[in-house]
Design goal:
Shape: globular
Strand content: 25-35%
Number of strands: 15
CATH topology of the domain at 2-63 and 88-159 and 239-322 and 353-358: FAD/NAD(P)-binding domain
Oligomer: single chain
CATH superfamily of the domain at 2-63 and 88-159 and 239-322 and 353-358: FAD/NAD(P)-binding domain
Bound molecules: flavin-adenine dinucleotide
Helix content: 25-40%
CATH architecture of the domain at 2-63 and 88-159 and 239-322 and 353-358: 3-Layer(bba) Sandwich
Radius of gyration: 21 Å
Length: about 375
């Protein structure tokens, strides 16, 4: 029997495995897919993740971007410098790092192992898989957006939004672009890859958009991509939409499964790694006999993430409602990008910006 079974080997599950193995707990990570994972990721990762990982991430970073371009419906292009460079990582290298690190210190990984059901019996989780069943004292659900664990654990399933991504080798370059307006209440982002481009689209406030793939392929064609030889896929995205309870007596939710994605920027990897790190710490404390450790996990995420996401959510509501006006009045201004890049690096919070604006409006 394992001390902890982690379902899902994405960034959240891998970080949690590392955190638990480091404290010499027996950990099993079950992943239905092969590895490196074929999860979509454009590769934009905040440098802030380094604080939760014990190893040097330099080999995974293939580019540090110091400028961004923006367009509105593919026109009105502006180029803006950024003070805190954006890390563009090779996702497979980062993934490999994370899992190998935890395996080196004792975590066990089972690939092609899909969890089919869970049952808590006398304080032990019995986990049914497509191969042999496994059992553990604790569970971390890190099975991503749209995974089954939330429902099986009896929590409310998050609302799932749509994204699509198109990987192509038919265009090359090093410009990072965000386009607003081509998709309603969302955005398209184009990120360079070592061997081409990754174009992605997200409907941030609309869950019933049927033609998201077509909008992206039209956009890609206009960018000069040969869509016939590109890899186009649709993916679920669960955005933060209010505080959630992320713990039960013997389980924790982490990453996309915990619905932590920033509803304004769509950033996920930083909260995924942050929550994986915290979930491991919480289970380590419970295994060590701390009485209040189960609530502490939800509380620490609420304090350090949710409070800021309240503001991100308010901003997102206004931003995606009036994208055109927001583009002209905000996005185009260099200061907006500087503030946003500080937020993504964890140097600034949305709440700080809201407070500054409030103090300007109400000086007394
Ligand atoms: C198009 C697109 C582009 C993106 N670009 C960026 C970006 O540039 N920067 C960024 O920060 N984020 C980005 N993201 C988000 C990011 O890739 C994911 O949200 C992030 O990987 C979430 O990590 P996670 O560990 O919570 O879940 P995931 O990475 O989704 O991992 C969950 C894992 O659980 C496994 N699983 C699911 N069900 C089961 C089961 N029953 N049994 C066993 N295993 C199971 C899955 O196979 C998967 O490997 C992007 C997302 C999309 C869709």
């Amino acid at each position: 029997m394992f001390d902890c079974i982690i379902v899902g080997a994405g960034p959240a599950g891998r970080t949690a495995a590392d955190g638990l193995a480091k404290h010499r707990h027996s950990v099993l990570v079950v992943e239905k897919a092969s590895l490196p994972c074929n999860q979509p990721c454009s590769g934009d990762v905040s440098g802030a993740i380094a604080q939760w990982l014990d190893f040097d991430l330099t080999p995974a970073i293939w580019m540090k971007a110091n400028k961004i371009t923006y367009t509105s419906k593919m026109a009105y292009l502006v180029q803006v410098p950024i003070n805190s460079p954006m890390w563009m990582v090779q996702q497979d290298v980062l993934d490999d790092f994370l899992i190998k690190q935890s395996q080196k210190i004792g975590a066990e990984l089972r690939r092609f192992t899909q969890v089919k059901g869970i049952k808590l019996k006398h304080y032990v989780w019995e986990v049914k898989t497509n191969s042999e069943p496994v059992s553990g004292r604790y569970l971390i659900a890190a099975d991503g957006a749209g995974g089954p664990m939330t429902k099986w654990l009896g929590w409310k399933e998050p609302k799932v939004f749509l994204t699509a991504s198109l990987a192509t080798r038919s265009i090359k370059g090093n410009a990072i672009n965000f386009d607003f307006g081509t998709i309603k209440k969302g955005f398209i982002w184009s990120f360079p890859k070592a061997d081409g481009y990754s174009l992605s689209i997200a409907a941030m406030r609309c869950d019933k958009l049927k033609d998201i793939k077509k909008i992206l392929t039209d956009y890609a064609t206009k960018c000069g991509a040969d869509v016939r030889v590109s890899n186009l896929r649709e993916h679920p995205l669960s955005l933060w939409n209010g505080d959630r309870k992320l713990h039960s007596q013997n389980a924790r939710l982490a990453g996309d499964a915990a619905c932590l994605a920033d509803p304004l920027s769509g950033e996920v990897i930083r909260p995924a790694i942050f929550s994986g790190f915290n979930a491991a710490q919480a289970i380590d404390r419970v295994l060590g006999g701390a009485d209040n450790a189960k609530e502490q996990y939800t509380e620490s995420i609420a304090q350090e993430w949710d409070t800021d996401m309240v503001w991100a959510s308010r901003l997102a509501k206004a931003f995606y409602q009036f994208t055109g006006a927001a583009y002209r009045a905000g996005v185009k201004l260099p200061m907006t990008t500087q503030l946003m890049s500080k937020i993504l690096c964890g140097e600034l919070h949305y709440a700080d910006i809201a407070n500054r604006a409030f103090n300007k409006l109400m000086p007394f």
